[in-house]
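Two folds, back to back.
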Amino acid sequence: MIRTAHAIEYGISKPSADREGPACLCPWLENSHRLVTLFEMLAFDAGRLATAMQFLVQASDSLARPEIANCEISALPGELREFYLDGAKRLIKYCDDMGLATTSAPATRIFELIEDGGTFTAGMMADMLADVSRRLRDRLGEQVFLKLLPDRAKYYGLQNGFGIAVQESFPSAAFDVGEACQCYALRRNTACVFHLMRALEVCLAIFADQFSVPHDRANWQSVIDGIEKAVRNMGADPARSADWKDQQEFFSQAASHLLTIKNAWRNYTAHARGKYSDEEAEALLISVRAMMQTLATRLRE
């Protein structure tokens, strides 16, 4: 690694180390025919871009200085050449990960010329780095990057968004729970509510099965009515458990909560009449998460 003194002497700050992970291609290059998730398409490491731009700008400016522009790269201190090699290597990996082939190619050429030495001068390298910088700006300018609000970013790409207990009790709802979290992070509030209702529908079906209430193709109102009737009649069941009163209270409250959600949100979402604000989506996300976590203590798919 380069000593800081050499970097300062040539007007370059050493970039911070990247987080190293398993070596792999970005998903659309690794297999161009497989499905790519929204997270893979939109996730963007601004820190790596800042490091790449820092290297390009500072290295280009320093190498273009008149006093060293005509010096061959091979004549520079060995540790400084290692610094340029390391910077070029990081730049190539960043471009490859982002699918920026037209930027990766000249960066790779710079890396090869530094390794080969010969008559490759500091000024020539400065010009090539400036060209790479322009290409990088042009290519990234063609793309759209989304910035997530800090309080929502934690929901983006979240696994087991409502907790392990919900994941294990209601695995069929996992897709919609995940999509609800994604949509909430991206401020797609109505889509968030839509997926929350789909996730709850899984719970409602399992709830209905618990009390042998038909639910196939039935609307929420009739299913909840059937559940409430069955819960009220728990005391008349000769095979009732010793804690039936505790269960009756639990399931009665759960059915009432589902009815409230159905009347307040589900009907309007299902019939395309509802449009939801940030506050409404957040309130429902919290409510449905609490509801599913509570149901997971007594029900299982």
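---
second:
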Amino acid sequence: MKIGIDIRPLMDTYISGVPEFTLRTVEGILELDQENEYVLWYNSFADVSITGVDKFKELGAKVVRTEYPNKVFNYGMQKFWHQPQIDKMLGVDAFFMPHFNFISLSDKCRKIITIHDISFMRYPEFFSVRKNIWHSAVNIKKLLLDFDTVVAVSENTKRDLIELCQVPESKIKVIYNGVSESSEINCTPVREELASGEYFLYLGTIEPRKNVAGIITAYDLYRRHSHGQILKLVIAGAKGWKSESAFQAWERSEFQKDIYFLGYVSSLEKHSLLRNAKTFIYPSFYEGFGFPPLEAMSYGVPVIVGNNSSLPEIVGQAGVLIDPYRVSEIAEAMYVIANDRELRKKLKIKGIEQVKKFTWEKTVLSYIDLIKKISHS
């Protein structure tokens, strides 16, 4: 059977979240599925680099690029004219989308799509006007009607799909994402002043949903009332939409000199930051899955996460869960973890055990099984 895969998520500059899922899953499918033939497709008018494309070709996949201007292709050709039908153009029997986007597929094609979260439906205020217009134009509720199987990355995302998009439960399959194993590479510190590892770490995009401004406000509160160990605060990640509130909170902070904005960090730098961190802090308002806390736990780093959406499901009993809307609660958790060695030791053990539930091999094998089922239906 010939399977098409949309690899447009790999056109992103930064490989994290959905792009990382796409890279790991596609690479794993190509390595482990010896029965099917794969055609990977993306569209770009400009000649952009695609992460992983050389490895995909080495593993036997055909990579096809169409060269339409994106706005014409998305809003005109795919949304209104429904041409070209991508499966017919590629000559494939089934098609897998690792993330929702504009797409036109024929009725004969068997279709699988992965939905990571629909936070934009729950919290449109967390997104830019431009992003909300894009979400509206894609029209995810209508899009999902055309798919045979909708994969949710958590039970929480499944519930959202049923409630907000009216997707029949029978069409949804939950497949958890994997998490990369901790690196054994000896990494030099990203900055000399962070070599001691005495810091709280946030790792992720800087945008309102992630509550970075809340982290900084809580850090101020922690510092004002701390009589024990004093930790710095490290914020690593690219700027997203509406990131101004985080930097405004930093400008107001009386502890600016101990708060480090590192911007986007490389994979090697990320490993270094995680390996040396005292505590990982992630009081997000909403997560469809939540890669960063699991990555931190794989290094034995205690985590503080929001008690909402998928985070309790993913972190389980291995982290400290707080109400992200209560800054005092975040600050208290920071203080307790910074000063309670026994608690950190317990969380380290629990975290390492929890991470074992989420492997890329499990994820990939579940997708291959799904592909085989649709190929025989």
